[in-house]
Structures are given as C-alpha cells and as structure tokens.
C-alpha cells in the first residue's frame, strides 16, 4: 500500500512538471509576436529623419538617411545619397496618398511628419506606388515628344523634349489674390496653390515698391493649348509658331506653376517691351526672392528653343531659383546636372 502511494505521488509530480513546461512554451509562443513588434518599433525609433528640406539634386548623408527610411516603408530605391528621380518619385507618391500634403516631390517638414507617422503606426491604407506607380509604359505625343512620368513635381521639366500627359490637370488649382486686367473668372487666373501663395507675396512686394504689376495668364489646359497652337500655326506656319507658342503638352502653363505678367505701360500686352518697364526691371531682379525664375531668358534661345519672354515666370521654389539665378543658367541646364 505504501509502495502504491509512492508511485502515485511520482506520477503526480511528473504531470505537474509536464504541465509547467507546456505553460512555459505556450507563454513563449504567445509573447513572441509582441517581442518581434517591440523589436521592430525599436528599430524604427533608431531611424532618424532629416530635419532640413531636401529636393532634386541634393546629396549627402541627409539624403541617404531619408532613402533608408523610404526603403523601410517599402520603396525599392537605391540608397546612394543622391536625391534622384526614384527618390522624387517616392516622396511624390507619399504626398499623393495624403490629402493634407502639397504634392511637389520635395521633402518638407509636413512630409517628414507624415513619414514619421507611417514609420511608427500600422497604416493599412498606405501602400508604396498607390499614388504614383513606379513603372509606367513609355509614352510619346503625336509629335514624338516623350511624356514625363511625374508631372506633379515642382521641378518638372516641360519643353519640346518633355511633355505633360494629355489628361494631367493639377488638383490644387486656386486663383491668387493679385490684380488681373480682366474681371472674368477664367481658368487662366489659376495657379497651383504653392505657386499662387508665392505670387501673392511677390505682388505685395511690387506694390510696396510703387509698381503696377498685373497677372495676365496662368494655368492653361491641354485642350486650350491645342486651340492656341493651331491658331498660331494657321497665322504664321508651324515652324514660326513653335518659336513663341508651345505644342499641346509641351506648355509650362499646363503645370499650373507659371504666370505671364504685364503692366499698363504696355497696354497689358505680352511683349519684350515689358523688360524696359519699371515692372519688368524689378521682376528680373526680384522674382528669385519669391521662388520664381524668368523661364525663357535673353541669350538662351538656343537652349530653351523659345524666344526671349521677360514676362513669363515659372515657380521652382526659393532654393532652386537662387541657384539657377546665381549660376545664370536655364532650367534645362540646371536639371542637366542630375544626369552628370
């Protein structure tokens, strides 16, 4: 009887040990995902986003850090420290997926805050490439001009070699609070929001300088440009027309980042005489202070392939405008640095 009690006790102890081992394994299995999650969060916490604004042509450690974070978010881009086309694409794609962000392809403070949120929170609605597909089929216009894949970026190059998609219409068009020589609310009053606010600042400064600057023509749709170009061809022939008028898709006006300006001294016309007015002289000197450049400067006709247009200003942002002006180059020459 005593021997039987010993056997029962031993069996009981074995069962207790087995149960304890099972509970431990179960506990380890249950807590493993949380441990992995904590490890993942810890890794994300060690990744630092750059504090400064970054854009195309920038390079260095800050760009490399940004590219590392973008890789972590799922963007398959090369970490090379160069703010190249693929980095512009990733930033543009993130901005397109968040309504609160201006879509420029430029890494700003607001974009950084959004990326930080994506990095530390499980956002099911976000997926790389949902805003702007990484790979698109190569397309050309009827004239054989290459259609650019990212028409949203602030530094998009639009000319006789690079055209905008036929269906591209900026989503953030607004009417800047500046003077126009007409009262109708026509589409050509519009600009993209980031350019419009800078144009307003430029006009305030012109007013303070005692000048009488007027805005004449901003956004222009593909269809409107088609009509204008056809009319110019009919009047002057295609070769002559294409020196002062763009084919549809090749006009910067479609970007919403351009405004033609004028003054009463030349009866609100768009002519080279504008350069000789007080307004034209002031604009040539101060447009850069507000992120604008004279897009088709004098003496650069062989590069831009358009005549001198002292009235045509293009928004590129203060950083690029300053560098373009200091280097005395066109947008074509400035962006060509990306290829070198």
TrEMBL record:
Residues 189-318 form the D-alanyl-D-alanine carboxypeptidase-like core domain. Pfam families: PG_binding_1, VanY. Residues 59-114 form the Peptidoglycan binding-like domain. InterPro entries: DD-CPase-like, Peptidoglycan-bd-like, PGBD-like_sf, PGBDSf, VanY-like_core_dom, VanY/YodJ_core_dom, Zn_M74/Hedgehog-like. Residues 26-46 are annotated as: Disordered. Residues 28-44 have a biased composition (Polar residues). This is Carboxypeptidase. The lineage of its organism: Bacteria, Bacillati, Bacillota, Bacilli, Bacillales.
């Amino acid at each position: 009887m005593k021997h039987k009690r010993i056997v029962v006790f031993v069996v009981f102890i074995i069962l207790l040990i087995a149960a304890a081992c099972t509970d431990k394994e179960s506990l380890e299995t249950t807590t493993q995902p949380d441990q992995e999650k904590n490890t993942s969060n810890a890794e994300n916490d060690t990744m630092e986003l750059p504090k400064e604004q970054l854009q195309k042509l920038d390079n260095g450690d800050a760009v490399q850090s940004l590219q590392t974070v973008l890789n972590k978010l799922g963007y398959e881009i090369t970490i090379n420290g160069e703010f190249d086309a693929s980095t512009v694409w990733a930033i543009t794609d993130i901005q397109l997926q968040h309504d609160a962000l201006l879509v420029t392809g430029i890494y700003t403070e607001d974009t950084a805050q959004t990326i930080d949120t994506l990095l530390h929170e499980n956002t099911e609605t976000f997926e790389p490439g949902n805003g702007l597909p990484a790979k698109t089929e190569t397309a050309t216009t009827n004239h054989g001009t290459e259609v650019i894949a990212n028409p949203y970026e602030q530094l998009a190059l639009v000319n006789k070699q690079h055209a905008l998609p036929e269906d591209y219409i900026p989503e953030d068009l607004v009417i800047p609070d500046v003077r126009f020589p007409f009262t109708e609310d026509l589409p050509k009053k519009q600009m993209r929001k980031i350019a419009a606010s800078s144009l307003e600042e430029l006009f305030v400064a012109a007013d303070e300088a005692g000048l009488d600057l007027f805005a004449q023509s901003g956004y222009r749709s593909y269809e409107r440009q088609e009509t204008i170009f056809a009319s110019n061809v009919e009047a002057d022939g295609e070769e002559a027309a294409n020196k002062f008028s763009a084919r549809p898709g090749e006009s910067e006006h479609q970007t919403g980042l351009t405004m033609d300006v004028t003054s009463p001294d030349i009866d609100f016309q768009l002519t080279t005489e504008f350069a000789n007015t007080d307004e034209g002289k002031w604009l040539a000197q101060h447009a850069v202070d507000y992120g604008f450049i004279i897009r088709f400067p004098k003496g650069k006709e062989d590069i831009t392939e358009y005549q001198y247009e002292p009235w045509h200003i293009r928004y590129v942002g203060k950083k690029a405008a300053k560098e373009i002006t200091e280097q005395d180059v066109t947008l074509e020459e400035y962006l060509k640095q990306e290829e070198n």
